[in-house]
Amino acid sequence: MIIEEYWKDVTIYYVTFKADNVLRKISRTFVLEENLTETEVAKLITARFPHVEQILQVEECENAFLAKELS
Prior knowledge:
Elements: H1 3-6, E1 7-19, E2 26-32, H2 38-48, E3 52-67
Antiparallel strand pairs: 1-2, 1-3
């Protein structure tokens, strides 16, 4: 059995940001299939979440495996 046959490598990022009309900071965990720089992660999030006003922190937490199929 080859690991790549059943699993994808992913990188887990912890991101803190401010959104429009929200007074508090929001923190979320993102799982991405690519290993990106902090700047690339910030650009990706602001491009796909239009209400994100400012990225405060991007932290690469760890690498993980994501199952390709569960059956």
